[in-house]
Amino acid sequence: MLLQKYSDNNKEAGCDEAGRGCLAGPVTCASLILPSDFINEILTDSKKLKEKTRFELKKVIEEKALTFKVIHIFPDEIDRINILNASIKGMQECTINLNIKPDFLIVDGNKFKPIEGIPHATIVKGDSKYMSIAAASILAKTYRDEYMDKIHEEYPMYNWKKNKGYPTKEHRAAIAKYGPSPYHRMSFKLLPDDEQLTLEF
Question: Global pTM?
Fold first, then answer.
């Protein structure tokens, strides 16, 4: 069972991201505040759940959360400031734009930059320890998956509907054959060194 709170603050927000290791598409960040009495026995790290369960939980979280915000940071920004800074920027922006200002913020992982006026703690594997981070991971993952399904219709040859932009063999084979799309992160190593990359799209 996940823990409800890390701190003694009533308005404690949880924050997480999805898609950090992908070759294409945005990194998607979510921040939210759950009610202090929120309980859900199914809720856990989004990576441990089936897609159907994640989308069922998405509805519950959106209905029950006191406030939530989800944003995408797109490949051009990722290429400009790097994936770590893009992830941190996204999580900061989500939190700053919540309708209720948090008293405290817990962030999945071990790297974050402070937000003025909001103390925080970073928690390694926080999405499998605290409800608010797990809920944020669900929103980040489901919103990102929906976005990847949408752009799949534009570039079906990469099969983003299935791989969601992650570096699968199939995805890399499609990049080798067709070259990168405008949705690919050009600062990432899209192909192994022994394969030539076509930059035309």
Answer: 0.94
